Amino acid sequence: MTCQVSPYKDLFATLDELRKRTARFHRVAIHTHSPESHDWNRTGDKTLNDREKFLAPGGEAEFINALKKYFDLVVVTDHMKCSYASRVCNTSRGQKDFLVLPGMEVTFQPEAAISCLRLHMLVILPERSTAESFSRLFARLKTIPDDAHRTGHEVITGLRLKEFINRVHDEGGLCVAAHVNSQQGVRHHFRQTAADIINLLTIDPATQAEQEQKLSDELKEYLLNVGLDALEITKAADKRHYRWTSTEKGYKVAIPVTMRFDAHCIEDFAQLNLVTWIKMTTLGLKGLHDALKFPETRIRFTSDLPTPPSPLLLGIEIVGDDKSLFKNERIAFAENLNCLIGPRGSGKSTIVEALRFVFGYNRTLLELDTTNKLSERIREMQKANLTGCLIRVVYQTQAGERRVLETTFDPQEDYATKVFTADGDQLSVADVESSGDYPLRLFGWSEIETLGRDTARQRDLLDRLVAELPPVRQERDNLRQQLQANRKDVEKIISELKAIYERHNSMIQRYSEYKTAFEKLNTEDVKKYFADLDIAQMKEQILQIIKKNIDSFAAKIGELDITSLREGLTELIQEAPQSLRDWWMTDATQKLKFVDSETDVQKYLSSATQALNGLSRLLDQHIEIVKTEIEVIQSQIRVSFADDSSMQKIADLRANAERRLREVSAVRDEYLKTWKRLQDTLTARKQTADQLIKSHDQIAGIRARHNETIEKTLNQYFAEHMKISLLFRAGCDKRQFIEAISQNKIASTFAKQYINRRISEIIAAYFNPVTFVQALFAGDADVFAGRQLPDDPSAQITSSEAQKAIESWILWATDEAAHVESLQDNGARLTKLMKLQEIEWDDEESILLNDRPVGELSPGQRSSAMLPLIALAETTPLVIDQPEDNLDNRLIGQVLANILGALKEKRQIIVCTHNPNIVVSGDAEQVIVLNAISGRKAKVEKHGSIDNDDIVQSVIEIMEGGRDAFRVRQNRYGMDLPSAVKAGDGK
Q1: Are residues 650 and 732 in the same domain?
Q2: How far is the C-alpha of 490 from the C-alpha of 830, rounded, in Å?
Q3: Closest to 468 measured CA to CA, from 275, 131, 701
Q4: 656/694 same-domain check
Q5: Residues 952, 954, 957, 958, Cα dihedral to 10°
Q6: How far apart are CA 229 and CA 290, in angstroms?
Q7: DSSP for 444-512, written as a single string
């Protein structure tokens, strides 16, 4: 049996290949000793750690094999020695996904600023560095011999720490302060010196804590300015001590920290909890150097290693033709920040719109801002660039399964996506969005700014920040659906009541007449003559009702046509190819045992019909017996009245009157039963409405409890001059309710000049749709009398107006002729009020920027206020087209880049952008470079992280201000300028 080859095998392989130049986390240990170190193997197994074995010719490879089990990148840092580290580095350069960097742990006696004691520093040099490279660090230091003669106990003196670090940097290396909290650590030395100073000085005990804090701050500023590339800490929690707002630089800074590994034997390599996870594009000193400049997102420990965002968009394939913008292109996405860059017309927005079509969001285009005709412009772009294109999106679900969402763009359709497994089997997914397995949030061009004017959508996004809200909101939605379903039931019952009332020319209206006439004839003296007849006739009535029900049930069974199981197949199979007809007749039909099943079902139906027909015939026999009994009684009555013509007349008239009353009573009884169903259904509606109010109150309470936390979360990404706050008023979003009260002329029943009198506003100030309709149902005018607007006491509903309105909405009337209750206006009033009751209302909740509603601000301010909300609201993949639109560079650098950088570990972000600050300061893991070519065509040119030189070159060439963006990053993070930037500076 051969295994099925996936039709997507080549697509998957291509996407994986295109992700190879993205930045990802690697296991790193930058403080590892080798057998050359004087303190090697103080505690480990002697055989396992045999020094001679590893130092012998070829022993480097065996040492590498021991390291590879646990790490991807290792720095060998022996005490004051480097020759073995250099040899191991050279040997490792042929390894796949593994590298050793040459390093050294030096003992340093610094300047008096941080005491006269000794501290340890880790020096890491580039891959090809030799012993001579390390020796240049000790130039003109007579106390340090060459590498071959060092014992590892030497101490560097006569240099300032900053000068030594500069020497390391001049060699292209990195300098890390080792185990800063130990007795040989720089933090310990500085603190000890500070303590000595405090002890020597006469300090008021009341200010000692303040003085110690000041010295601590001075230590951090010293460490920042001395030029150290990183610090080595002993536990993950210590990193918080090295994140602060610098008084010198004026913005938040972070000294990179790595976990102290300090391995001295093979057994120490297994300390996985001490591994530092560092995100790099390529293994090596450059990757390590770049990562240290982005410690917030690129350096993690085992305890806080981010879980890869899930679910994910793994990539997209567009297979076009000569008329489409793309011919055949594949784009791979990384799990964090992806930036699509390219000149105008290169297809960035087309990629976004292809995703919109695949995920079915064309169906909600009309919800976008109609002022700028966004929906029309989007459809025009899709039609111009995607017509005739086969689009495939590779999606990784929350469960880690690969799925392919596939469709051919059709401008006449809003949704036509099919879903396949990785093996090519089609899944039964009617709608990728509603299924919940393929979530995506997409904001096309200008949609973010539009969001700033839509408070309802702002509220929905805010709700996504509160984990306990979704189930409660779903309950509220279910209750609203129950109200709508209840109204349908009520409307159906109203139709039934109308039909019953109009039956036999509205016979029911003669009920009182027929009842009076019969009672007039049916005196107590007459009743005794007809008692037996009445009983016999009631027997017949009972039997006739049973027979009617049985015959009706049998008729329904008789309407079932067994051939309907094949409905729609005949023409399809007749028009199908012969191979399909053969499959149906010889394979599918036999395996399904279709004919046998049809025969069995037919037997069951026939058997049921026979049983019902037999019971019906038996009832006929009993009915005939009762009829005979009736005829006998009637004959006896006629005989007894043979000599009394007046009684004969009474008997005839009574029989006619009794028949008429029986017929009209049967109609009336049916009406009353249906009326009771109506009242029961309305009672159930009230219960649902009461639950809806409670559900909304619960939602409002949850929102109110979380709003302060949400404000703090949103504000962490803004500068001090920008303050986000939330406007929240429980239950006050009643715009649809106010509009409905006015348009449906409901407000006019309270006052003729209802607009000038602001009647709709008064009602909405005190009622929501549910409570308002319930008040009208109750018919209590006092509920409305005296209501006025808080800001306008003259806008008031008087008692007479309230009474008039109540009378206008009386729903029931008494039909004296039929002796039943009826609906006013044949139920039109009731239907109108039920529809009003179903109008949605909600809390009023929106974003304020510096205490002003964002809808009143400039487009740029609206966009900046919305960005944190969009990014924070969920952890599902986020696609944004040109988020920088309407923002100035200051906002992009201070707000947008910070948001993307902080949140890309929690959710996948895909951005189309023309602004280099997003790509550079956001530290994009995957940059997709597109280009516009002749003939209105576009193509994908390259993939890779911002660390790759060719990607840097593309940013500089394509994006205006690209070179400046790298300079901004250099000033902010102290990073070296890429070679492409330096080359441009030299022109």
Answers
A1: no
A2: 9
A3: 701
A4: no
A5: -120
A6: 11
A7: -TTHHHHHTT-HHHHHHHHHTT-TTHHHHHHHHHHHHHHHHHHHHHHHHHHHHHHHHHHHHHHGGGGHH
Q: What confidence score (pLDDT) does residue 207 get?
A: 52
Are 840 and 738 in contact, with CB atoms under 8 Å apart? Answer: no
Is residue 733's pLDDT more than 60?
yes
| DSSP-assigned letter for residue 367 | G
**Count of beta carbons in the 10 Å neighbourhood of residue 794:** 8
Over 90: is that where the pLDDT of 389 sits?
yes
Residues 645-677 as b/e (b if ≥16 CB within 10 A, e otherwise) read eebeebbeebbebbebbeebbebbeebbebbeb
Cis ω before 256 (30° cut-off from 0): no
Q: Which domain holds residue 816?
A: 690-715+726-845
Distance CA 109, CA 132 (A): 22
Looking at the fold, whether 672 and 694 belong to one and the same domain comes out as no
Cβ pair 325, 385 in contact under 8 A: yes
**Which amino acid belongs to residue 645?**
S
Q: Do the beta carbons of residue 178 and residue 120 sit within 8 Å?
A: yes
Confirm whether 639 is domain-assigned.
yes
Mark whether 633 and 759 lie in a shared domain: no
pLDDT tens for each residue of 536-580? 888 888 888 888 888 888 888 888 877 777 777 777 887 778 888
CA distance 685 to 480: 11
Task: Please indicate, yes or no, whether residues 732 and 668 belong to a single structural domain of this protein.
Answer: no
CB 30 within 8 A of CB 258: yes
The mean pLDDT value for 702-708 works out to 94
CB 327 within 8 A of CB 935: no
Average pLDDT, integer, range 964-976: 63
Note the pLDDT tens digit of each residue in 134-158: 999 999 888 889 888 899 989 998 8
User: Is residue 405 very low, low, confident or very high in pLDDT (cuts 50, 70, 90)?
Assistant: very high
Confidence of residue 480 (pLDDT cuts 50, 70, 90): very high
Give the integer Cα–Cα distance in Å for 290 and 970. 11
What is the structure's pLDDT at 371?
60
Note whether residue 869 is domain-resident: no
307 pLDDT higher than 80: no
| Together in a domain, 694 and 654 | no
88 and 111 both lie in a single domain? yes
Measured in whole angstroms, the distance separating CA 555 from the mean position of its chain's CA atoms is 52
Please write the tens of the pLDDT for every residue from 177-220: 887 655 444 444 444 444 443 343 344 455 545 655 555 666 66
pLDDT tens-digit profile of 24-79?
899 999 999 999 999 999 889 999 999 999 999 999 999 999 999 999 999 999 99
Q: What is the pLDDT of residue 372?
A: 63
Are the C-beta atoms of residues 493 and 674 closer than 8 Å to each other?
yes
Residues 46 and 90 sit within 8 Å (Cβ to Cβ) = no
Which residue is it, tokens 């300028």? 977
Q: Is residue 479 part of a domain?
A: no
- pLDDT above 70 as % of the chain: 89
Give me the torsion for CA of 378, 381, 382, 384, rounded to 10°.
Answer: 150
Question: What pLDDT is attached to residue 185?
Answer: 46
Same domain, 703 and 785: yes
Cβ count within 10 A of residue 643: 8
Q: Write the DSSP assignment of 530-588 as a string of letters.
A: HHHHHHHHHHHHHHHHHHHHHHHHHHHHHH--GGGGGTTHHHHHHHS-HHHHHIIIIII
Task: Give the DSSP H/E element, type plus range, for residue 26.
Answer: strand 24-32
Which residue, 236, 257, 280, sits at the end of a domain?
280
Token pair of 131 as six digits: 């012993």
On whether residue 640 sits in a domain, the answer given is yes
- Nearest partner of 345 among 385, 389, 391, 390, judged by Cα: 385
| Number of domains comprising the chain | 3
- Give the CATH number for residue 266: 3.20.20
Radius of gyration of the chain (CA): 42
